[in-house]
Amino acid sequence: MRITGGNAARRILKVPKGLAVRPTPDLVKQAVFNSLGVCVAGARVLELFAGTGALSLECLSRGAVAAVCVEKSTRYAEVLRQNCQVAGFPAGALRVRVQDVFPAVAQLAAAGERFDLILADPPYGEKNVARRSTSFAQQLLDDPNLPALIAPDGLLVLGHSKRDTLTLPGCWQERKLLKHGDSIMRFLAVAPGNPKPAVTYD
Length: 202
What we know:
By secondary structure, the protein is an alpha/beta fold. It contains 5 helices and 9 strands, in the order αβαβαβαβαβββββ.
């Protein structure tokens, strides 16, 4: 794993051994940031299910002003901090919250936090046929606190498996979709005005 662009490009990131963490592949990460373009510069970033912090560190390398990472594993959070140091970012640029994502989202929303970019590539759920998804990706979409964390004109970039059919609640509006192998990355904005009917994506 490495940082693919910006001031810290080509810096190698540490990845814990084992299968409990699934870092976003470099090719997928590069496609995401090519699509985001200049909107990363100056952004305040929130990364959920952060793991090694690869997406947040990529943002900082490309000019984001600050990043908050939420990762419930103490071990992975320590690796994330080490990666930040290795990449040479200032200590204050990255804040790590070691806790479960959903209480963290509620607490950040209650505190009035707002982010220009929210990134989440959670562990994949099982293939869902003839039933609604129960994956972490679907749980994020259903979380009523998450839209409140997005600043005006901000984006949620959400990763999930192509085997996972998501239902998009009416508060979200899809802007773009990227596919790479088994990975799908959706670029979502908060829908303006009244919520629209939920849409199920195959």
